[in-house]
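A further point concerns the way the authors explain their paired sequence and structure data. Showing the layout once, in full, would remove most of the difficulty. For illustration, here is how one protein appears when written out as sequence plus structure tokens:
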Amino acid sequence: MSASELGLSPADFLEMTPLELAAYSDGYQRRTNREAWLHGIYTMYAVMSIVSPILSKPGQRAFQYPDKPDRELAPRLPAEVEADIKRQRQQMRDYLDGVVRSYKERGRPETEAEKTAREDKEVLMARAYMQQISIVGKNRGKN
């Protein structure tokens, strides 16, 4: 890796200690890894938006590629991550409660509003699952 790849001028490079240079190099590597990870996520979104309509049942809403960048993919503070995990756990409980309720009410057909709400929850749960995978992946790299 060269000084120019790290965004350093030759003068800055020559004045740096090995420890400072290692810090710049580490930051560069982290940025590169994060960009690669984001490219992978958005590639997955693109593939899902193409494959989802093909594999969806008739009348089922297919995955839509996001219109704007996903706020959930931005770097966050540990407290924000914990709050999101608690929120996602509650969403999962609510979703599973709904599943149990639907099994108890199987005798009646699902209304259009219920179907839309269920599909919206499924999309949210899929995003929450992908987010959990990314958190676990990040935590594995720290050990």
User: Anything to note?
Assistant: The helical segments are 10-15, 18-55, 78-104, 112-142. The first helix runs from residue 10 to 15. Residues 1-59 form one domain. The chain has a mean pLDDT of 80.
